[in-house]
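Explain my protein.
***
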Amino acid sequence: MRINPQDYSYAFRFSRYDCFKVRTGTCSLHLTNAQYQKTKEREKNQDFNDGSVDYCRLFASHMIKENWFERNTLINADHYKCGHIALASGQHRTCIAKTLKRDSLTLNIFKYNDCICNVCSFKKSESQKTPLQKLIDTYKKRKRKKFATHNFIDDEGIYYY
């Protein structure tokens, strides 16, 4: 099924090792060439996996060269009743298509789900917490040693839940 990625909001789930934007606050596709080269040089001996400054830039270049926007990307998507789309795989491909303002992306499966997405579910549960529960959560987050995975809606920006 072909969709226009610009018509939807996506519920992404990335960690700092999956997404340069989660790690730095800026998408690598939005960097100037000078900013890109400076970041690449600064991070040359560090391994951020899919969250490296190169990952999406090289992936986007490959997608354009191989015309991935017109053929089946094997992305399986769920369209939730809250209006958001969540992806089991293909988050980078979808984000790249939207960031590059492509008007076409061919998905393998695009099905409707009669629930709300995980981001909206989390927001709903957070809004129902008492002030004491929120204070306890804040304390626990400060003690956390490992990096959390970040769930966010692409059009809203990144929130560190």
Notes: The two ends are 33 Å apart (CA to CA). The first helix runs from residue 20 to 24.
